[in-house]
From TrEMBL:
Domain of life: Bacteria
UniProt keyword Ubl conjugation present: no
Residue stretches making up the Glutamine amidotransferase type-2 domain: 2-289
Organism of origin: Sinomonas puerhi
Keywords, comma-separated and alphabetical: Glutamine amidotransferase
Protein name: Class II glutamine amidotransferase
Length: 289
């Protein structure tokens, strides 16, 4: 299953050290467990998006996945891809960038040709460079955000509601970041998504970041206040909480969190793993390490 990780560190840029992909134990295990792409999305000091990603497979360059990635940003977005649609190429690897926003998705939906028609109607077909359902979903969010005058939350709500009402859906879990904001969605309840608010009432108190899962790790000293969102709890911290199904989470530049529930209770047509082809189903299993 794809892995998501998002972090908001507030107004000040912080340095975190990332490892994408914990090194497997053997070549035999690697051949069965390597992902189809890894990437980190951050923002420069002047707010420009910066994406460092590569399609990594068991027979390709392992150095990218093993080396520590030292980056500095106010927000971070990391993703490990297990492909359900689209070749193992750079353009199909998360995060995606549109309108100076970054996006990563964990899930799947079908009948993408219907979504292609909606994107043509909205004049947004040119936003899609690859073959994935994820990039198409992001393009719809971008188109709806433009129609909402730049209101990202309204764009997410409109886009995902349209998908839920018109397409068969397994999961639309996703994270979107800018230099100042983070949005995260858990919808419906197929896959988990968790968050941790590491906020202290004491000013200028340094804190360590130590977030580790089977596939994404992030570490940093004196990171300060921060909010994390991830596919699974990272590190043994009781403050991790699972987001409720249907949640649209917004984290602002001051780390204020807002939760709304703008989506239908359930997708009109809900997919199960049995509805997917074997490769797509394998990419979506919770236990895929």
């Amino acid at each position: 299953m794809c892995r998501l990780f998002g972090m908001h560190a507030g107004h000040a840029a912080v340095r975190a050290t990332f490892w994408l992909l914990t090194a497997p134990d053997s070549l035999e295990v690697q051949s069965r467990r390597e992902p189809d792409g890894t990437g980190i999305g951050t923002f420069t000091a002047d707010g420009q998006p910066r994406v460092d990603k590569q399609p990594v497979a068991a027979w390709e360059d392992r150095a990218f996945a093993r080396e520590a990635r030292h980056v500095e940003s106010t927000t971070f977005l990391a993703h490990v891809r297990y492909a359900s649609l689209g070749a193992h190429t750079y353009v199909n690897t998360h995060p995606f960038e549109q309108d100076a926003r970054l996006f990563a998705h964990n899930g799947a939906f079908s009948e993408v040709q219907t979504l292609d028609g909606q994107l043509r109607e909205l004049g947004a077909s040119g936003l899609v460079q690859g073959q994935t359902d994820s990039e198409r979903m992001f393009a719809l969010i971008t188109a709806e955000t433009r129609r909402a005058g730049g209101d990202v939350g309204a764009g997410i709500a409109a886009a995902l509601t349209w998908i839920a009402e018109n397409l068969p859906v397994l999961s639309l879990n996703c994270i979107i970041t800018t230099a100042t904001d983070l949005w995260a969605v858990r919808y419906p309840d197929t896959h988990e998504l968790h968050m941790l608010e590491n906020i202290s009432d004491a000013p200028d108190v340094g804190r360590h970041l130590n977030a580790r899962s089977p596939r994404i790790s992030a570490h940093g000293k004196d990171v300060g206040d921060h909010v994390l969102v991830a596919t699974e709890p990272m590190a043994d911290d009781p403050r991790w909480e699972m987001m409720e199904p249907g949640t649209l989470l917004h984290v602002g530049s001051d780390l204020t969190t807002t939760r709304t529930f703008p989506f239908p209770d359930h997708p009109r047509r809900r997919l199960t793993l049995n509805d997917l082809d074997p490769a797509a189903a394998a990419s979506q299993r919770e236990g895929k390490a």
